[in-house]
Amino acid sequence: TTSGIQSSYSGTLTKKSSSFMRPKQEAYRFYFLPIHVKISSSGIYTFLCESGIDTYGCLYNEPFHPSSPSSKLIVTDDESGSKQNFKLVANLTTTESLILVVTTHNARQTGPFKVTVYGPEKAILTPYVTIPLTTTSTSTTTSTSTITSVTKLGVGGSAGKNGSNIQWEGNNWAMSCNFPGNDMFNVQIRGEDCGGRCAQTSNCTHFTWTTYLGGTCWLKSGAVSKNDAIETSDLSMVCGVV
Asked: Domains in the chain, start-ordered, CATH in brackets?
């Protein structure tokens, strides 16, 4: 049995929740809810989730960036708790600023949950607001190029029409889309790291990620907006702005 001083936090994952590519996955559309955790005493803490859905827990050192879900990651768990829920156990110190991210085993799952924290002292749990990547340009000019570096190499879906139907869902990235041209260079990395790499690269304003060569991030420059993205037939392709 789990013992210690208890504190709890209840929330609900909905279709309006933010989504990301959670650790140990190569697809987006995992809804998540981040919780700020403040502790006043060092020691072993247990985070136990109760829910009717199959939850997945991630514990981070702050800051938490959804575009780089493996950065500052301390521990994850899938089903160590009861009824396919997570149970995270970590030895924490008061010098750490922590973020607990509640997400799911399968993509697009929604439902209520309750997290109970056991430890040497009561943990203070409050909502955490992630800082989204912001667009650096207000340009709304539609690109006239119909051939991209991705489709030229035969690794992406066919170029489509201007992306009025692209589902951004409140994020600065979306699925099944591409930004034509303006390539700086490309690098073979995981899709979850592509947006973060662009944000850390001088003059990079937008990106496209494909499964080419096991995962390729195409870093791009120039004035751009979400309206410049085009739809593609490749369901695994991701595009975004920073």
From this structure: 5-127 (2.60.120.380), 149-241 (3.50.4.10)
